[in-house]
Amino acid sequence: MEFFRKGRRFAKGRRLAAVLCAGLLAAQCAFVKPFVSAAEDAAYAQDVAERYALYQKEDPERFTESEAYTISRATPTISSLTHNTRFANYVKVDGIDVSKFQGDINWSKVAKDGVKQVIIRAGFRAYATGEVVEDPKFRTNLEGATAAGLDVGLYFFTQALNTKEAVEEADFVLSKLAGYPLTLPIYIDIENVDYDTGRLDSAGLNNAQRTAICKAFCDTIEAGGYRAGVYANKYWLTTQLNAGELEDRYAIWLAHYTDKTDYTGEYQTWQYSCKGTVSGIDYAVDRDVCYSKKVSYAADGLTIEEIGAAVKPVMVGDGKITYTSSDPAVASVSSTGEIKAIRSGTAVITATSSNGTKDTIEITVGYEKHIRLNYDHMVFADIGASEKLSSSVQVSFASTDESVVTVSKDGVVEAVGFGTADVIAEDDNGNKGVCPVTVAVYEKGDCNLDGRVNASDAAAVLSCAAGLGVGRSMPNMTDYEFGLYDYNADGVVNASDASGILLYSAKLGAGSL
User: Which strands make up the sheet holding 419-426, listed edge to edge?
Assistant: First the structure.
């Protein structure tokens, strides 16, 4: 990525000698290697040839030792960095980024060395021909890092000259993933080809055009269901891009090789060195620090009143988050953090992030004192009439007098004889709801079913019309009951019906009613 920085094999304490292929790599690379056996020498020569062949494909990154630097643990580490004060309450996660140039990686050793996350090169666009090329180690690195339990993201080294090519690059990455899960963003890597002049370097684009290329790539990645970001060094972020337009929408991965960056823009990941060492990798490797939010639920507790209901509490947190329930028989939790009520009781849900933080929320599953039914009461005038009674929770139904009404297991209430009875709805915890049922013929306007039509019935009509005392704008009624209220038979219950009932009860104008 930034500058001449793709590594060399460790001398491991033995005397170094100039590697073969000096003519092949003249002025491009100055490889060094220890004295080894003929077999090791041949394998090393093949490795060099493969790397040079990749360079010949116009890889904008470079395998070089032109500076012949010594790789050592003196390279800055997260603990030795001076972090911006804005990240005081963040977790500092140890990360690396890799490509073909890191060779064969032992991911188990990488994980044991404390690395928590890796950003893997998916590919690049050739800096002269414009060919889109997959990194030869992409699939191996992706599967190995995931199996080792690391958080994984990707980057693509762009040489796009316009938004159409940027979309092509993003589609290329998405096609290689085919839905493979990632926990970190997919970044567009935009920078100069330091050892040559790339097609992007010579395109004469302005800041707005380069920024549009980044947006097109990121928007395509996000449309594909992944988080997107932009990798660039401090110079590019401050002079070659409109960084303010990017940082509000995408993750920013800053490259600045120092132990104290003075970059003032927004960023979530900082690549602070290109000369790092990690167990399991034989070559120099980039070192990154990711500023990760600590896992935290917004509330300490939550009550779910209904069995079967599902909620997803508000929380913040970065990294790969796993969820567990202290009692899945009370409340279960999915891999995405959705909590489902199973039965009454309490359970503690724990969210644990790969960044090393966790938080809990106590879930109480219970009911209201009264089960909510869709009917306050039912009135039938005809034998054989029926209505469906339903409940806010799963219940069993029973009739207190099956000579008046019967009820099926799914709540269908049927009139079988004149009289009154109750339908009882009961859940597994013994909570009950009651729906009174009357099967009788009443005079039109006798809304309170007391055998008389008077002012009390008119008041009931007005209360119904105003939605008072019923918990909703209109109570559910059987067709027959609605007909008692709809005194003038105009299809609505309102003040006109109340007036008609009052007139009738006062024997005024009764002949016309």
Answer: 378-380, 432-439, 419-426, 396-399
**CA 94/CA 287 separation, integer angstroms:** 8
Residue 482 CB coordination number (10 Å)? 17
Q: Are 280 and 287 in contact (CB under 8 A)?
A: no
Predicted local confidence at residue 196, as pLDDT: 85
Structure tokens at 225: 């269901």
DSSP 489: -
Residue 77's pLDDT is what?
82
Q: Which CATH class is domain 442-513?
A: mainly alpha
Phi, psi dihedrals of residue 340, rounded to the nearest 5°: -120, 130
Q: Which CATH superfamily is domain 72-292 in?
A: Glycosidases (3.20.20.80)
What residue has token string 């990294």? 319
**In this structure, are residues 339 and 353 in contact, taking their beta carbons and an 8 Å threshold?**
no
Ranges 54-58, 264-268, 281-285, 496-500: which has the least confidence: 54-58
CB 276 within 8 Å of CB 76:
no
Read off the pLDDT of residues 169-205 as tens digits, 9 standing for 90 and up: 999 999 999 989 999 999 999 999 877 899 999 999 9
Residue extents of the structural domains in the chain: 72-292, 296-365, 367-441, 442-513
* Long-range pairs for 128-133: beta carbons < 8 A, 24 or more residues apart: 128/58, 128/198, 128/199, 129/58, 130/159, 130/161, 130/165, 130/199, 131/57, 131/58, 132/168, 132/169, 132/172, 133/57, 133/59
DSSP structure class, residue 511:
G
**pLDDT, tens only, 417-426:** 999 999 999 9
Q: Architecture of 367-441 per CATH? A: Sandwich (2.60)
Which CATH fold would you assign to the domain 296-365? Immunoglobulin-like (2.60.40)
Q: Which residues are CB-neighbours of 70 under 8 A, at least 6 positions away?
A: none
**Same fold for the domain at 296-365 and the one at 442-513?**
no
Q: DSSP of 352-402, one letter per residue?
A: EETTS-EEEEEEEE---SS--BS-S-EEESSTT-EEE--BSS--EEEES-T
How many helices (H) and strands (E) would you count in the chain? 10, 27
